[in-house]
Amino acid sequence: MRTDLLTDPVDGLDEALAAVDAFDRVLVAGLLRPQPAQAAGLAALAHSVAGTPLASLVAEAADKAAAGAAGEDHLVALAAARTALMGSVHDALTDRVADATGRPRAERSTRDTPADTPGANVLAAARAWLCDLARAGWQGIDHELVSGAGPVVSAMLPDPRLRRQATLLDGFAAELAASCPGATLERVPVRRWADLWTRALLLTLPGAARTPAADTVTGRLLPLGVDVQEHATAVQAQVHAVLEPSDGSAPRLVRAAVSAPKPDTVVGAGLWQLLRPRMSLLGAAGEGRAVELDAMPVTAEGDLVWDDERARTGESADPFATARVILSTAADPVTAPLDRHPAGIAVPVLVEGYTAEREDDGPLTFTLAGHRLTVDTERVPAASPLTPEAVAASGACLGLLRWDAGEFVLQPLAVETTVRKKTVALHAGAWAGGTTDKLGARAEKAATDSVAVLRERAGKLLRK
Amino acid sequence: MPVWERSSTARVVPPARPRKLAKVPFVELADGRLQGVVSSGSDIGRVYVSSIAAGTYAFACSTNNNRPCGGARGTFCNHIRALVGEAVLQYGAERVARYLKAETPGGEPDAEALVSVMTGTRPAQGDTSAAAPVFSRFLRHLAYLELEPTTAPLPEMQWFPATRTAA
Fold this sequence. Notes:
- The complex is a heterodimer of chains A (464) and B (167).
- By secondary structure, chain A is α+β, with helices and mostly antiparallel strands.
- Chain A has 3 domains: 4-202, no CATH class; 215-329, CATH 2.40.50; 337-427, no CATH class.
- Helices cover 40% and strands 23% of the residues of chain A.
- Chain A contains 15 helices and 13 strands.
- Chain A has helices at 4-7, 13-29, 36-48, 55-66, 72-101, 120-136, 143-146, 149-156, 163-178, 190-202, 269-275, 280-287, 319-325, 388-392, 438-461, and strands at residues 215-231, 234-245, 252-261, 289-298, 303-304, 311-316, 347-352, 355-358, 364-368, 371-375, 396-404, 407-419, 422-427.
- In chain A, strands 7, 8, 9, 10, 11, 12 and 13 form a 7-stranded mixed sheet that branches. A 6-stranded mixed sheet of chain A has the order 5-3-2-1-4-6, sandwiched between helices.
- The longest helix of chain A has 30 residues, at 72-101.
- The model of chain A has no long low-confidence stretch (mean pLDDT 94).
- Chain B has helices at residues 78-91, 93-100, 111-120, 131-143; strands spanning 26-30, 33-39, 47-53, 59-63.
- Chain B has a domain at 16-131.
- In chain B, a hairpin with a 2-residue loop joins strand 1 and strand 2.
- Chain B has 167 residues and is of the alpha+beta class.
- Classes of the chains: A alpha+beta (464), B alpha+beta (167).
- Chains A and B meet through helix 9, helix 10, strand 1, strand 2 and strand 3 of A and strand 1 and helix 4 of B.
């Protein structure tokens, strides 16, 4: 990997992010009574898309918002402008990543099937709530305003077709609730909340959520690693893997995700327990096995929509061997237009021959050929044998290349370390399918007990 | 802007710490209260809804059928004490103390110190009107276990990375 390219400046990046930041600061104080500084921020956003088809729509929206008279359509236009800017940042960064990895990019098949758009009423309610948030601003949030998301989320959650919207709103509202009242906030996660607000608002529009899987794939799936994402009331595990199609076509990188809503007290090994029964791939990835796929549905973005009926666990397949032999020839998937955002970048890479360093309180870094890459050991799930110490002592690392707050970072999925002159691999998802490890087994037992208590309570109280 | 403000994945709420749920199946810092549901020691079918208001420490405890708790007269009952203990396990004492606006003398607070600071102010007994909404929040919380997992990707979860560091 050409790590030197990861630290080189990207043309236009600072200008695009400056316009994003200008708009994001507008949301801190809210749009109820805009001040001159906010009008300037809105104008900066409008100016940044002046050469695009959004120009007149956004200019009008910025004017209305600066006058304190923005309606829903105006706020949606502003969110669209911010999404376009972040999309351009995403594209510039993924081009840079492709140069660094030297891997081919998959062609995006443009076969867009019309998606049904359920829940028009509840989506309209979500939009109204988000617009109220923008008017109040992060400094103006209170319990009454934030709790308005509750009924919306409750109405959405039972419908799997609205899971994207429900999961995002639920996680966002929980953060806002924990930060109330906004007037006394010491610091505001300015970009993060603007990101979440923008995405949530766009997802309330008909057709914005992804179209269903339009294709199927058959072949051998070689897992690379498992990435876990969680907020208080949801978890998603995503397996990154190389697919070798049985028709002899070129290998490609794919992902397979499984997610579930959860009570906030289900944590650690309990997350694996919730997800495990729904996707056999977690067990296969945990054990380091390949999986044979037969007509598995796949989206245009390379996301397998997992169905256990179409998968059969195969022989063992070491992720490091997969990474060393096939990864460099596998094509990276293409992101759906509305999903293009730097926070979504997660590109599997193998790095070797680095020097690991940690300065006092600073983050761990790998130095490769004189260039430093920050390592985000925080992202490793709690129920995992992979520890920050093991990463710091490693000689090879299989990870996801990400980008946040102005720099590329490496999220470890697995490392190789040397123990008594023998190479040992530690995987973040090693316990995904269960474990015989002493610590891991104890965590499994505790999690089983927790869920048993809750199920027993639910059985008694919910069905009365 | 500082790095934290420019981060899309800035950690805002630390994840709950694991704890045993048998005695206190539900606890939360919400609506300006520490509130939750405590299992009855004697009757397996009964639960108590307990709460302490932030700032005033006004406390309330009643069953889910709105019968007052016999112990919560004049001062915190054992249910409320258990609630504080489990909240400290789940969120960490510092976060509980900050939310309740309870300043404990000396360094790192613990559950015992928190209870003694709050009871030392001779808090008033609050009304039990919050019991119904708290109980319905508990039911909503339990209902999350009944929802089906899905394998359609949720791209927005990329904003919510796993976090090793608990509260």
